[in-house]
Each structure stands twice: as C-alpha cells, then as structure tokens.
Amino acid sequence: MSSRLEAEHLYKVFGRRPDEAVERLRGGAGREELRADGTTAAVIDASFRVDPGQIFVVMGLSGSGKSTLLRMLNGLLEPTAGRVLFDGQDLTALSDRELREVRAKKISMVFQHFALFPHRSVLDNAAYGLAVQGVPRAERERRAAEALRLCGLAGWEKSWPDELSGGMQQRVGLARALATDADLLLMDESFSALDPLIRRDMQDQLLTLQQTLKKTIVFITHDLNEAMRLGDRIAVMRDGRIVQTGTAEDILIRPENDYVASFIQDVDRSRVLTASAVMDPHVRGDEADCRCETATPDTPFTALCALSARLTHPVAVLDGARLVGVVPRQRLVGFLGDQQGEPTPCDHPRDEGKVTARA
C-alpha cells in the first residue's frame, strides 16, 4: 500500500543561518549547542509515513516540536530541509497558489481553540471551508448539515456559537473539517482545552466517525492515554526528534530507550493491550485445551483476565481454527505490572500447569 502522507528527514530551524545549523545537526551537534548560538532547532530529522485511513498520533511534551512538525505537513511552515509528500506530490516544491489550493480542498485542520466566527451561525461556520472553495450556497449548506449530523449536532444549525458548550463548539470545528471532504485531517491538540469527560466523549466521536469515514488523520497530543486510545501508530517526540514510532502495543511492550520507558510507566495497560501482545506464541498443540472458551488475537486485556479467571489452564488464542498462542495467568499478571503488590483481577491461586488437549 502506498502511503497517503510521508515526511522525509524534516528539519525546522529558527534563527540565524538555519541551513548552516542543519549541517551542524547532521554532523552531531545538539539542540542546546545551537541554542547557545541563538538558533532554535524545533524539528530535527523527522521521518515517518501515514497510510490511507490511519490515525497517526504525534505525542510529546510541550516544546518537543510536535506542533511545528504538524504545520510543516500542510505548508503553514516551510521546512528548513527535507520533504513532505502527499499522495506522492512534493508539497515543499509547490508555489504559494498551488499550496493554497491543496489546503483548501485536500487538507483540513482542526485547532485546539475552536476558532469559530461568532457572527456566523453553526451551519455557516461548518460551511466556511466550502465557501472559501466557491461551492454554491445550496450545496455547501447541504454538505455542512450532513457533517453536523455526523458530529451529533443535527438541530443546532441555526444556533450561534456562544449558545453551545465547549464540546459542542469543538464538534462544529470538526464538522467544518469534515464538510470539505478533505483526504487528510490535521488535528493540533484538538481536545486539550476540553474538560476530561467532554474530551473522552470527543475521542469516542472521532473513533465512531473514523469507522465510517476512514479518513487519514495526523493527531497531535501531549496526553499519553489519548495517544494510546486513538492512534493506529504513534510517534513519540523529544527535543525535536522522533525517538520511537510504532503501535501502542509496540511502545508499551518494547520502549526503545529510558525516556520512552519513563513516559509510559503510568499508562493503564489494561486499556491498550490485546491477546496478540501478551500471548506466548511458542506453543505446541498439546499445550492448551482448545475445547473450552478461547480468545482471538484482538481480545482485549480485560476480557482475557475475565476469561482466565474462569479457566484452570492457560487461555488458548485462536486465529480462526489455528492455535497461535496461549496466555498463562502469570503472564497476564506480569504484563499488568502489579507494582503496588496488590492483587490483580487475574491473580488467583489456581495451578498454572499445562493442560493437554483432548481429541
């Protein structure tokens, strides 16, 4: 599958002699060394690809470079070095007019702050991107109304932004991005200004929409649990560099350095891990009883715990009719990380011995 979006060795340097600074970075100079000379390296040698229909999350603390990286993806900031490819087209080689055309029709952005026009109705706010494109009024209102319906705002079309809650205003911002039917959505800390319950509701809304629309999304966040919940793949940034890219399970189970390991230590693993991540794949056909309740590779961790509590032997994991692994109870306990020494939902005294499959 060809990628929808690809970043190739992106650098963004602010300050004096940025090209010279890039060469120094390539030669091994550090961010602090450049800062001492009055130059700020916001993004350093960032490369990744995003496949069609994928939610790609860029996660990092404040100052890690994630928002600067996002703005290079649609040309709001010009890279000091490197390329951005969108459907194979080099966006960094486009003229200003061509780039505006791409942003108007193919790439939409949802900001952290709602950026709604207070003097326009909800419907007109949702239709604004289509108005910029020159879409006739009847067509843009039809498409905006459908986008509002998808975002749970049917019946609010004639309301004003100040009549809506914060969560509802953010839904209008999302509807405005969806109405243009753009191929790529860029979301910059889009839910960070919301209260926790509303924020989770917006995450649910995005995941529900994604099941239907299959948009390609780059989502920026500093919240690790949000990244783990939303991301098909996740890039972790630190000091301008991407230090690890992978699935949520990859990052939880195989952190590439001490920084990532410390970053993920407080994550609720039971919300992320599945049977495929925790099973022992080195298993023979006589090491699990497949006649009883079984799991699939996608079975959530919490469901595995409940299943293990009902069985006297390791849980068999089947891909169709094929046995692909087993999950012993103590393996569940180990992945859960019982750091306080308290009993886990899976921790009980049954024997963990092997069970022979019967014909």
UniProtKB/TrEMBL annotation:
Keywords: ATP-binding, CBS domain, Nucleotide-binding, Transport. It comes from the Bacteria. GO terms for molecular function: ATP binding; ATP hydrolysis activity. GO terms for biological process: glycine betaine transport; response to osmotic stress. Pfam families: ABC_tran (PF00005). Residues 337-359 are annotated as: Disordered. InterPro entries: AAA+_ATPase, ABC_osmolyte_uptake_ATP-bind, ABC_transporter-like_ATP-bd, ABC_transporter-like_CS, Gly-betaine_transp_ATP-bd, P-loop_NTPase. GO terms for cellular component: membrane. Transmembrane segments: none annotated. Residues 345-359 have a biased composition (Basic and acidic residues). Residues 5-264 form the ABC transporter domain. Gene3D superfamilies: P-loop containing nucleotide triphosphate hydrolases (3.40.50.300). Belongs to the ABC transporter superfamily. This is Glycine/betaine ABC transporter ATP-binding protein.
